[in-house]
């Protein structure tokens, strides 16, 4: 095993221009702007126009991330796409993006760990780079969630938006990059959040009275309780592995599912509000794209300085959760 450190070399994102605001949702279901803001912290979501394939968001995010890394598409060895709403089961989103950006030297596959997908993909990509098998890995978290959202169900339709976030990973000097990571799955809790695909059970049909069977259904309060505990425990664990405490870190970049989940975890960890990166008021829950989009915004706004320590932490369907302890060091390509 090569003794090298793996870090983020470049970031990019794409948010479709059309917005769905809380006031728009008031006209669609029995809800109110006041309820949505108080219970979730969300104000608007970006929605991809009908008729446009979702992977096109990932193409734009990928191009920006590769350019930001100072590379060309021909330099990319592997593309991993995380998604809960693929345009096709085959070809994979990764192959569609590989084709459109001209990454002719890259292998490509999709990966599904729901909202934890980005964290899982970073840990997977790290192994390919650390063993020397690949040099540059592009991760695209491509989430066209409006395509699997039932806009007749007020329990879910207020939450989700569309977006893609991308990063390029490669070798960085030893003081930067991924220091520790931890991944968990809890398949026994998977029934609390489902998106049927090629098999629809009677139970899944009953839970979707509008007849939109390929849509998200969740037990909101079960997922909420799991989320606060999972984010708190994964963050604590990954920092413990690194010999750090929550007070040592400069920023936490959590999955953006609900501001009350984020604040609940931050409070338990005794992390100050100004160290928490929250974007969900403008994006809603964009599943696995939450973290890479937040990282791209933090990076471009100059909120991340080389040497800053951060935790990226997510939870989601499966159920899954995971966390990464990381030292920011962009433009430090080895
Ligand atoms: N507008 C108005 N009222 C709504 C509503 C809406 N959009 N959605 C639900 N309600 C109602 C419920 O019907 C319920 O009414 P009742 O008491 O008469 O039955 C009431 O509000 C409270 O519902 P509850 O589910 O307890 O609300 P909550 O505070 O738990 O918030 C979620 C609901 C979905 C926002 C919250 O549970 C959540 O964020 N869960 C985690 C979901 C998540 O993160 N999923 C993605 C995983 S990656």
Summary of the model, kept short:
The chain has 11 helices and 13 strands.
Give a structural overview.
The protein is an alpha/beta fold and 334 residues long. The protein has two domains: 4-175, Thiolase/Chalcone synthase (Peroxisomal Thiolase, Chain A, domain 1); 178-327, 3-Layer(aba) Sandwich (Peroxisomal Thiolase, Chain A, domain 1). Helices cover 32% and strands 23% of the residues. The protein contains eleven helices and 13 strands. The strands form four sheets. The protein has a five-stranded mixed β-sheet, with helices on both faces. The chain is globular and about 55 Å long. It starts with a strand and ends in a 7-residue tail after the last strand. The mean pLDDT is 96.
What is the averaged pLDDT score?
96
Assigned CATH class of the largest domain? Alpha Beta
User: SSE string, helix = H, strand = E?
Assistant: EEHHEHEHEHEHEEEHEHEHHHEE
Q: What strand order characterises the main sheet?
A: 1-7-6-4-5
Share of helix, binned: 25-40%
Question: How would you characterize the largest beta sheet?
Answer: 5 strands, mixed
What Rg is obtained from the alpha carbons, in whole angstroms? Answer: 19 Å
CATH homologous superfamily classification of the largest domain: Thiolase/Chalcone synthase
Number of strands: 13
Which structural class do you get from the secondary structure elements? alpha/beta
Q: Which CATH architecture of the largest domain would you pick? A: 3-Layer(aba) Sandwich
Low-pLDDT segments: none
Ligands in the model, by name, code or SMILES, are:
coenzyme A
Number of domains: 2
End-to-end C-alpha gap: 17 Å
């Amino acid at each position: 095993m090569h003794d090298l450190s793996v870090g983020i070399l470049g970031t990019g994102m794409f948010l479709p221009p059309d917005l769905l605001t809380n006031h728009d949702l008031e006209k669609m279901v029995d809800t109110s702007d006041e309820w949505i803001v108080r219970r979730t912290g969300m104000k608007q979501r970006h929605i991809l126009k009908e008729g446009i394939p979702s992977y096109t968001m990932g193409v734009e995010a990928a191009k920006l991330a590769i350019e930001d890394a100072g590379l060309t598409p021909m330099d990319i060895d592997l593309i991993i796409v995380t998604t809960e709403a693929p345009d096709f089961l085959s070809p994979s989103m990764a192959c569609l993006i590989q084709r459109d950006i001209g990454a002719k030297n890259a292998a490509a596959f999709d990966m599904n760990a729901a909202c934890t997908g980005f964290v899982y993909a970073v840990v997977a990509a790290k192994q390919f780079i650390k063993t020397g098998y690949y040099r540059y890995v592009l991760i695209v978290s491509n989430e066209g969630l409006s395509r699997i959202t039932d806009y007749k169900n007020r329990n879910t339709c207020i939450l989700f938006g569309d977006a893609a976030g991308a990063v390029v990973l490669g070798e960085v000097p030893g003081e930067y990059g991924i220091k520790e990571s931890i991944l968990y799955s809890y398949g026994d809790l998977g029934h609390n959040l489902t998106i049927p695909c090629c098999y629809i059970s009677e139970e899944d049909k009953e839970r979707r009275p509008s007849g939109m069977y390929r849509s998200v259904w969740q037990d909101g309060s079960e997922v909420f309780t799991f989320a606060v505990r999972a984010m708190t425990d994964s963050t604590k664990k990954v920092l413990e592995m690194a010999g750090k405490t929550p007070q040592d870190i400069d920023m936490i970049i959590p999955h953006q599912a609900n501001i009350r989940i984020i604040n609940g975890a931050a409070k338990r960890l005794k992390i100050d509000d100004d160290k928490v990166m929250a974007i969900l008021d403008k994006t809603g829950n964009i599943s696995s794209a939450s973290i890479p989009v937040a990282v791209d915004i933090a990076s471009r706004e100059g909120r991340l300085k080389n040497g800053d320590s951060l935790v990226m932490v997510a939870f989601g369907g499966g159920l899954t959760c995971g966390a990464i302890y990381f030292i920011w060091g962009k433009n430090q390509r080895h």
